[in-house]
Amino acid sequence: MGVGDILLWGVLPYVVLAVVIGGTVWRYRYDQFGWTTRSSQLYESRILRIASPLFHFGILAVLAGHVMGLIIPKTWTEAVGVTEGMYHFLALSIGLVAGVGTLLGIIMLIWRRRTTGPVFMATTKNDKFMYVMLVAALLTGLGTTLISVFDHSVPDYRQTVSPWFRSIWILQPDVAAMTAAGISFKVHALWAMGLFAVWPFTRLVHAFTAPVHYLFRPYIVYRSRDHRSTGSVPVRRGWDPVGTQDRDRSAHRNRAGTRR
Q1: Is 188 annotated as a binding residue?
Q2: 145 and 189 Cβ atoms separated by less than 8 Å
Q3: pTM to 2 decimals?
Q4: CB–CB of 202/126 below 8 Å?
Q5: pLDDT value for 81
Q6: Does residue 231 come out as left (phi exceeding 0), alpha (psi in the -120 to 50 range) or beta?
Q7: Using one digit for the tens of pLDDT, what is the confidence trace for 43-72?
Q8: Where does heme b 1 bind (predicted)?
Q9: Cβ-contact 159, 181 below 8 angstroms
Q10: Which domains does the chain have, with CATH numbers?
Q11: Whole-number Cα distances in Å, 33 to 53, 119, 207
Q12: 3-state SS record for the chain
């Protein structure tokens, strides 16, 4: 291990964590009105109706795959009967489907944003930078999945990247484990840390806000239902016009002129 390895895999993760936490707190305190995706559904909904669910459900599946690969130790999956061959088959099949679906969804979103005039005009430089970071993270992730399955000379990431990732959270970074990982995994890890570092300062910050309170929020009554019977009973108006003296005089003169 050299100084560079220690800085990259022992120091940089905590710098990124500090930026993510500090940036999120800052964004929440000083830019709550900007804590939004700035929806553009009003401008175009046909492509968005397909691309948005494809991207969001795909990214959730990708996240679930990362949880299984990085957080769950290899010994645990083997203890429940998941062999190495079964695990790699699942990683290749489900991981590729989720990754390709997510990539296709974000490509459709970028195409929509570029070809729809009002949506493109509402696109900022920050949004363009965010899309570059997202697409690159997805491409490097798909690349590592293919390499880990077909290139048997690459060290198993469940013995290199996974122990390093878990060691970060117990404040004992296993730099040696990450140093032994393949180059593709190192590139993907560095790009992922860069993505998380800019996360609080882009529209991606909305992912930290889950609308759980909607499940417990009381109903909002916009118009109460009138249970009185209809028919010949006159309906009482809920408002009366507010008149002024000049209007009252004008109305009186008009009525007088009509009688004459």
Answers
A1: yes
A2: no
A3: 0.74
A4: yes
A5: 81
A6: left
A7: 778 888 899 999 999 999 998 888 888 888
A8: 56, 188, 206
A9: no
A10: 3-32+43-204 (1.20.950.20)
A11: 25, 20, 15
A12: CCHHHHHHHHHHHHHHHHHHHHHHHHHHHHCHHHCCCCCCCCCCCCCHHHHHHHHHHHHHHHHHHHHHHHHCCHHHHHHCCCCHHHHHHHHHHHHHHHHHHHHHHHHHHHHHHHHCHHHHHCCCHHHHHHHHHHHHHHHHHHHHHHHHHHCCCCCCCCCCHHHHHHHHCCCCCCHHHHHCCCHHHHHHHHHHHHHHHHHHHCHHHHHHCCCHHHHCCCCCCCCCCCCCCCCCCCCCCCCCCCCCHHHHHHHHHHHHHHHC
- CB atoms near residue 47 (< 10 Å): 16
Tell me the pLDDT tens digit for each residue of 192-219: 999 999 999 998 888 887 666 556 666 6
What is the total residue count of the chain? 260
Paired tokens of 3: 């100084």
Report the distance separating Cα 245 and Cα 249, nearest Å. Answer: 6
On whether 56 is known to bind a ligand per the annotation, the reply is yes
Contact assessment for residue 140 and residue 134, using Cβ atoms and an 8 Å cutoff: no
Q: Which structure tokens are listed for 17?
A: 């964590």
Token pair belonging to 121? 């005009």
